[in-house]
Amino acid sequence: DGGITQSPKYLFRKEGQNVTLSCEQNLNHDAMYWYRQDPGQGLRLIYYSQIVNDFQKGDIAEGYSVSREKKESFPLTVTSAQKNPTAFYLCASSIVVTQETQYFGPGTRLLVL
Amino acid sequence: GNSVTQMEGPVTLSEEAFLTINCTYTATGYPSLFWYVQYPGEGLQLLLKATKADDKGSNKGFEATYRKETTSFHLEKGSVQVSDSAVYFCALSPLNSGNTPLVFGKGTRLSVIA
């Protein structure tokens, strides 16, 4: 059963702590993305990756970091530099970046304690 | 630049009412156009898409027609159900503008009451 998995579903962060959100896909897609969604708001692009070992900043990359060591995996780290991390985080993938449908995971809700 | 403008929500309709959610776009070249749906607490799902002018995308009773002359891709459904309550996002994928990801509108929340 192909798709995108995100874990955990809920994540709690203490002040000054880094946390990492997991995203895995078995669709054999080259491109992967991270979005942030705030209540009642649209999607904002954090980072995207066109291929393994390559990634580009999106509109709101400050306070976040990513890696793409494997085709299947694109973890997002929310660092302590991100002062307002509480949001719903969505991972997506597509065959390539342009002109292609993106497929989304179920999301991770991050809350600050 | 590339942008998508959707009608402001929320939209509240009674069951079996006709639905229109307006979407207009600005883009260089000839983009592909998409509608995604997000049910509460979930990720986005592709609802329908169209890749060239005058194409009509359709799925689950929803449809949208790619109108190049009005740069629009309005979403319609003839008879909504309570289960259609969700947030709907219009998006475009630019053509011939480098490796640019999808550009999303801000979303329109639809509530259908019985």
Largest interface, per-chain counts? A-B, 26 and 25 residues
Low-confidence stretches of chain A: none
Q: Estimate the strand proportion of chain B.
A: over 45%
Helix amount of chain A, in percent? under 10%
Major sheet description of chain B: 6 strands, mixed
Gross morphology of chain B: globular
Q: How much β-strand is present in the residues of chain A?
A: over 45%
Instruction: Kindly report how far apart the N and C termini of chain B lie.
Output: 41 Å
Seen as an oligomer or otherwise, the chain set is heterodimer
Terminal Cα span of chain A: 35 Å
Got a strand count of chain B?
12
Describe this structure as you would to a colleague.
The complex is a heterodimer of chains A (about 110) and B (about 110). With about 110 residues, chain A is an all-beta fold. In chain A, about 0% of the residues lie in helices and about 50% in strands. Chain A has strands at about 5, 10-15, 20-25, 30-35, 45-50, 55, 65, 75-80, 85-95, 105, 110. In chain A, strands 2, 4, 5, 6, 9, 10 and 11 form a seven-stranded mixed β-sheet that branches. Chain A has a four-stranded antiparallel β-sheet with strand order 1-3-8-7, with no helix packed on it. In chain A, a hairpin with an 8-residue loop joins strand 9 (about 85-95) and strand 10 (about 105). Chain A is globular, with a radius of gyration of 13 Å. Chain B is globular. The mean pLDDT of chain B is about 95. Chain B has strands at about 5, 10-15, 20, 25, 30-40, 45-50, 55-60, 60-65, 75, 85-95, 105, 110-114. With about 110 residues, chain B is mainly β. In chain B, the strands form three sheets. In chain B, strands 2, 5, 6, 10, 11 and 12 form a six-stranded mixed β-sheet that branches. Chain B is built from no helices and twelve strands.
